[in-house]
Amino acid sequence: MTQDLNILRPAGKCTNTSAITSDIDTTMAVLTQLVAKPDQVDSVVDMFLATYQRDHEIWIALKHTDSPSKFTVFDAADNGVHNADELLQPSPMTQSVKIMKSHSKVTIPNTEKTAGAPVGLVIFFKAKPGKADAVRELISTTIFSVIAEEEKTLLWFGLEYPDTPGLFGVLDFFTDEEGRRFHVAGKAVQAVLAATDESLAEPADFSEVDVVATKITVRV
Fold first, then answer.
1. What domain count does the chain have?
2. How far apart are CA 10 and CA 163, in angstroms?
3. In DSSP terms, which residues pair with 208 in a beta bridge?
4. InterPro entries from the xrefs (predicted)?
């Protein structure tokens, strides 16, 4: 049996929704980075709110905090990019990603604590030559093992980019800003910092994001 979790809100604002226990077993997805024309940022947000992907197992539209015209879409069923010519800069960047591991704390019945995930992090890791297995272990085992301890980390995805050898990523989504700050100061990020010199070609790239719209189909 499947149910939909639809979280539709202006970026950074949380709306109560039906919450569900999830078992997300999708293994491949597409990550697309879009840049809005300077005068069309609000229109792109409106476009996502109006056209979120109803048929996809996981679909999350994100707005980057430090670059207001930059958006990222995480899509577990590639059905084309929302690249309306009048709204976006040319050439959105689309990459296939393997979901190595995922975790969700969305539960039934809905509570204020798990009402939605309005803020998140997009993190990129570049492994040193010969260190890809170590980075996989870092994400799939070390980081994954502490996510359950973080009460306000609502959704988490560990990613590998098969078309770019050595490139990995994490998507984190939190119930509020306090949860994001706790995560950044917590064991998961400490593990990343500890592995940087040994396993990473460069420091991990962290971007704060606001969730524009989310749709997840899960098994219950």
1. 1
2. 33
3. 121
4. Dimeric_a/b-barrel
Give the Cα separation of 184 and 164 in Å (integer): 26
CA–CA dist 105, 114 (Å, integer):
8
CATH number, domain containing residue 66: 3.30.70.100
- The stretch 146-157 carries a mean pLDDT of 90
Structure tokens at 148: 């359950």
Range of the domain at 194: 2-219
Query: For the stretch 65-86, what's the b/e string if a residue is b when 16 or more beta carbons lie within 10 angstroms of its beta carbon?
Result: beeebbbbbbbbeeeebbeeee
Residue type, 106: V
| Phi, psi torsion values for 205, nearest 5 degrees | -95, 115
144 within 8 A of 101, measured Cβ to Cβ: yes
End-to-end CA distance of the chain: 6
User: 57-66, 128-137, 149-158, 200-209: which range is least confident on average?
Assistant: 57-66
